[in-house]
Design brief:
Order of helices and strands: HHEEHEEHHHHH
Shape: elongated
Distance between the termini: 65 Å
Strand content: 5-15%
Structural class: mainly alpha
Strand order of the largest sheet: 1-2
Radius of gyration: 31 Å
Largest sheet: 2 strands, antiparallel
Number of domains: 2
Number of strands: 4
Number of helices: 8
Length: about 240
Amino acid sequence: MSIDPKQLVKYVVWLAGQFDAAVTETRLIKYLYLIDLYHARIKQGETLTGWPWAFVDFGPYCKEAYDAMEQAVKLNLIEENYYDSKYEDRDKFRLLSIEKDEQDEEPPIAKDLHIYIISQLQQIIRQYGDDTARLLDSVYYDTEPMRYALPKQQLDFSIAKMPEILPTIKMKKISPETLKKGTGIMDKLKKKFRDAAKDSLKRNKLRLKCGLYDDAYNRALEYLDEEDLETGLKGVAKLEL
């Protein structure tokens, strides 16, 4: 499938804007990598762009992605704005965006992208749109080509595959008779502990006066130590007194 990389860049920047997520150079390049990954998952390892992604420094990178970004800026497909950096090793950094009069119109290239690619990219932007560190971690640790790559090595997209969907666990239905029995047991337990609490409260007044532990205190300990009631049910019960 032939696709215009510059238009792909524009689409990514536009999509991020729909979620009010700022787009830096680093984030954009990682989004482009993810698009190739998502395409490879559904196309037996074939990427959308055909770019030679490699493990460079802290993640996937290729010059072609950077060049596509620069060309999109040069052709005014996207805007660039420079801001003062808070880091001493550089003076400025730039953010990429779409012109205001184009923000409400989805770029035409969207119709050429598989719905899986779009939905996954939306999810990533929603999760990490303004958190570069977490985005880099996700790309580094959670994408198949990066898991087995060595520094400076070209990434292998043939190992890309759809994440395994865990089977749905069906819970066994409880019969009305069992529910009724369980409710009765819980009512008995509530009454038992409520009565014990009332009895203990009454006798505590006497204990405070005489300074001695009476039989109510010992009975409370017995309640804690005694065996479970024979109910015929198994599980964990939560009491609300």
